[in-house]
Design brief:
Length: 111
Amino acid sequence: WAYATAGHVAPRLFQVVAVESMARVGEFTPQNLSNTVWAYATVGHAASQLFHVVARKAVAQMGEFKPKALSIMAWAYAKAGHTTSPLFKTMALVGVMRVGEFYPQDLANVA
């Protein structure tokens, strides 16, 4: 998150972090998941295997996602071009049920 926010692209660092993140994804909270894919999407680091692993974990935890984390997750996957159907279907279902909890920025991220 920090490197992406600062605009620093460090391919080797992102590769190493992707491998470690996949190994420890079971420990990630919804916020950790969304921050991770946001960072990779922001710097344009493909990490397709990481996106796949995070998507599976996110689908399993989707009921625990706060609207902000859900909207960031949707934005990151769209930005990175990873449009995994099960993830997007699950985000849509949860988003529809909880749309009243979304702030305008969250709605804009999802749209």
